[in-house]
Amino acid sequence: MKTLTKMKKVCCFNRFVLFAMALSLVTTFTACSSDDDDSNIPVYSLKDVDGNYSGTMLTEPSVATLESTGEGEEPAGVAVTAEVKDNQIMIKKLPLDDLIKSIVNDDEIAAGIIEKLGDINYNIPYTPTFDESKANILLQLKPEPLELKLVNEPAPTQAEEGEEPSNEIIIKVTIEADKNGTYVYEGKKLAFIIKATKVDVAGTDFPFTATTFTFDMTKK
């Protein structure tokens, strides 16, 4: 009788151990499954827009495009690169040929000015936010005036009384942005538009037709 009782106790103990082991395995598999699910959830950051980009910039109206594009053809734009970092779009070697040609109607003079200006880098500060779907990052652009310094040779500009004459002409271009720029995760595309609305040459407003610059770039 005692032996039978002991066997029952051992059997119950073994069943308890097996139940505990099974429960432990189920908990482990559940935890692993939960971890796998969490690892598949993308983590978004407003810093995702940072990086180096290449693409095109289209100028409208474009003097060069009007001259070279046939009827019904789409303008191609010019190659441009940029770096996005610290909430700034840093455009390298901003193509300004069309802008200068729209200010100066003489092709020869415009070519001379373009050569003297050399490479122009232009930074656009922005504030980033997500759109509702989190599929895009919106960039609220805050462009500052583009200042160009042109050496006037051989005659210096007329100086005010008591000031030293200067041979440097300052061209200040007012830049505006009516819409947010966008960074689209799919394809890592960056697109934005800025507009030159006013030109000041040596402190005097210059007759000027507003010019739009459309950027379409992809992260490298």
What does this structure look like?
Helices cover 28% and strands 37% of the residues. By secondary structure, the chain is an alpha+beta fold. The chain folds into two domains: 1-41; 46-219. α3 packs across α4 (107-117). The radius of gyration is 32 Å and the shape is elongated. Residues 65-69 have low confidence and may be disordered.
Short structural summary:
The protein is α+β, with helices and mostly antiparallel strands.
Cα Rg:
32 Å
Outline the low-pLDDT stretches.
Answer: 65-69
Residues in helix, %: 25-40%
Number of E-state strands: 11
> What characteristic shape results from the CA principal axes?
elongated
Structural class: alpha+beta
In what order do the strands lie side by side in the largest sheet? 1-2-3-4-5-8-9-11
Profile the largest sheet. Answer: 8 strands, antiparallel, barrel
Question: With helices defined by DSSP (H or I, 4 residues minimum), what is the helix count?
Answer: 4
Strand residue content: 35-45%
User: Residue-averaged pLDDT, rounded?
Assistant: 80
Count of the separate structural domains: 2
List the helices and strands and how they pair.
Elements: H1 2-39, E1 51-60, H2 63-68, E2 78-85, E3 88-92, H3 97-103, H4 107-117, E4 122-130, E5 136-141, E6 146-151, E7 168-176, E8 181-184, E9 189-201, E10 204-206, E11 211-219
Antiparallel strand pairs: 1-2, 1-11, 2-3, 3-4, 4-5, 5-8, 6-7, 7-9, 8-9, 9-10, 9-11
Helix pairs in contact: 3-4
